[in-house]
Amino acid sequence: MTLKELNFFYKLSDNPQVTQVAQELNISQSAISIAIKSLEKKLNEQLFDRVGKKLVLNERGRFFKDTTYPHYLAIKDAQTIFQKDKLAGHMKIAASKTISNYIMPDIYYDFLSLYSDVKFDIETINSTKILEKILDSKLDIGLIETDYTHINILREKLYEDELIIVTSDKNYPKESYIDTIEKKWILREVGSGTREVFINKLGKHANSLNIFMELHGFEEIKKILIDNKDCVTAISKVAVEKELKSKQLFEIKLKNFEFKREFYLIFHKDKQKNLLFQTFIEYLKDKLN
After folding, report:
1. From residue 192, how far is each of 134, 162, 169, 198 by CA, in Å?
2. What PANTHER family does the entry give (predicted)?
C-alpha cells in the first residue's frame, strides 16, 4: 500500500463524492478510481459500495479505516519529524457557539499563520452535538461549555466563564432576585451549554421564567434585546462586552445566584495524540491562560 492510496481512501471515506475529492486534490477522477482499485486489490477486499457516481464506505471499509488511520497519522508525522519548524496535518475541530464566536477566531488564525501546512475543518455547533461527534470519532477536538463526563471521553479545563443577565432597559433595577424579573426571557436552544448551565443552576426557580423565545445564536438574541426593552437573557459575559461598554445592554446582578462555569477541551480516549494534536493543545492552553 502507498501513502497516496491511503490518502485517497481517507478522503473518500469522509466525502463519497469522487468529483469533489478530485477537485480538492487537484487530480483526475480516474486517478482516484485507479488508486482505490489498486488498494482494494492489494487487500483482496472491497472497501466501498459503488452507488451511482459515489464511493460509499462499507462496513469492511469502516473497519479498515478505524484500524489503520492512527498508524497513517503516525507515518505522516514521521515525514516531518526531523524538520523542527514544520508541522503538517488536517484537524477536525468543533466548538460551541460562545467559544467559537468570541474566543477561538484569533487563536485559529494565529496558529494557521504559524503553520502553513496545517488545515482546520471548523464547526460551530452546540455542546450536545459536539459530544455525540466525539463519541463517534468524527472530531479530533471539541470545545464545550458543559461539565460532562463519559467513560470514552477525556476532558481538560481551559477557561473560566461567567453568565450574566442583561437587558436594554437602562431604567431597570441593577440588582434583582431571579423570581422578580418580570420580563420575557430569550434563551438559547435546548442542548446549548449556556442554557444547560443556566437552567441547571436555577433548579426549581427555572419554573418562574417566562421563556418567550428560543434561538440558536447570541447575535440574534442580542439584536432582539437591543430592540425590545421588555426582554432579558442569560448570556456569556465575553459575548456582550462591546454592548455593555457602549451601553446598549445593561447587566442585572442577581442577589441569589451566581453563574460561574468552565470551558472544556474534550477528545476521545482512543484519539491518537500525534504531533499536530499535541502542538495545538499546548498552543491553545498557552493562549487561554
Report:
1. 16, 15, 26, 10
2. HTH-TYPE TRANSCRIPTIONAL REGULATOR (PTHR30126), HTH-TYPE TRANSCRIPTIONAL REGULATOR CYSL (PTHR30126:SF39)
Domains of the chain and CATH, by start: 1-82 (1.10.10.10), 159-262 (3.40.190.10)
For helices 18-25 and 3-14, the axis angle rounded to 10 degrees is 130
The answer to whether the predicted template modeling score (pTM) of the entire model surpasses 0.70 is: no
Of residues 80 and 212, which shows the higher confidence score? 212
Cα angle, residue 8 at apex, residues 89 and 6 outer, rounded to 5°: 75
The string of pLDDT tens digits covering residues 78-106 is 766 666 556 788 899 999 888 998 899 99
Separation CA 94–CA 141 (nearest Å): 7
The overall average pLDDT reported for the chain is: 88
Cβ neighbors of 193 (< 8 A, separation 6 or more) are 96, 98, 126, 127, 144, 145, 146, 261
Q: How far apart are CA 194 and CA 147, in angstroms?
A: 11
Angle of CA points 112, 148, 274, to nearest 5°: 35
